[in-house]
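A brief tutorial aside. Many learners find it easier to grasp structure tokens once they have seen a single protein encoded end to end. The record that follows does exactly this for ABC transporter substrate-binding protein. Read the sequence first, then the structure, and try to relate runs of similar tokens to stretches of the chain.
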Amino acid sequence: MRRIPRVGGAVVGAVLALSLAGCGGDDGDGSSGTSADGLQGRGPITFVTGKDRSGNLQKQVDGWNAEHPDEKVRIIELPDEPNEQRQQMIQNATTKSDAYTVLNLDVVWTAEFAANRWLTELPEDRVDLSKMLPATIETARYRDRLYAVPSTSDAGMLYYRKDLLDKAGIAEPPKTYRQMWDACEKVKDLDEAKDIDCFFTEVNKSESMTISMVEAIGSAGGAIIGPDGEPAVNTPQAKQGLEFLVKAHADGRMPKSAITLDTEGGRRYFQDGKLVFQRQWPYQYALANQDDGSSEVAGKFAVAPLPGPDGPGVSNLGGHNLAISAFAKNKATGLDFIRYLTGVQAQRDNLLATSKAPTIAALYDDPELVEKLPYLPVLKAAIENATPRPVAVKYGDVTAAIQEAGYSAVTGDAPVDKALADLQGRLETLTARQ
């Protein structure tokens, strides 16, 4: 039994572990329409994605449709929860349905979908990757072949109530957990802050738990999958990371409802003025700054790098890649639409409209954009130093095991040691290669 080591700074141990045994041996020979040679056909297509709450996606699709009346795009919106999005896309693929054309994939799904021959390989000479952040490009490859184009990136940041920290005499955001807890105590001495909670990161039983564990364990110097490709949650670092989540919830530093709040629930909690600190994605920035009365904290918050046990913490590398279903019609139109959505102008417009992280490197250094979105330097650094989730061909099983372990520990159903021991055994089975 052997495992695949870390390559190029990203955890790929589980990526190839079941690449042939689990998916029938994808050699990219063109069968089932997976080869780049299969990019044929023009006409109407669908774009399958999670919910767009900004309205900007429809605006961009309307722009495409106005210029391509014979190749119109119809948006198919899936649920908010990533697990449900993934399941619906998998159901479409396993039935070999042509209902989905372009897929908006979480970056960690790309390898799984490519290995199972659900995606069409993309020709690199027809996609401009030269302007994109290197970390984002790697998420779009499987076995050194391109199966998607990075559309948005993502990394966790610390949102904090700058107005309250200023009033409490705290000049800088915290770099360590201890500094964050101390800042909370000072803030809660203020009359207007007595009833708000200190900190929130997602610990519900969903993909968000996997992300929180990657960040907490990574911030403690550990990893879920080690650099040698071996599961590594039987380590002191992994224990320290999970204990941070457990204690933050048990000690009341996180709201008790944290075990049920999803990403959107956390956003609303922060926007309602109920938190001092929050780990959150950049998309929240624009929404929390709305001056239409929907946010109680507009103009009152700022962002900083995530804290860790002894210094700045580790962010999870998130984002989305655009790919073409292996079973779709009109794949040539699909590729052109992907190039349109991932182009510089479209990404710039999307950044301004939604505050979602672009994959075009130069946009992070654009003075006009930095003036409007001052978190961009923090976000760029977070992306460049981010840690990926374990990327696995059997990703659904891997993330489910991580979620179960983390949730059982945070809710007190299992001691940390037992939760991690059970997780270690499960991951060893899931990532083993005969």
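Self-check: The chain has 16 helices and eleven strands. If you spotted this yourself, you are ready for the next section.
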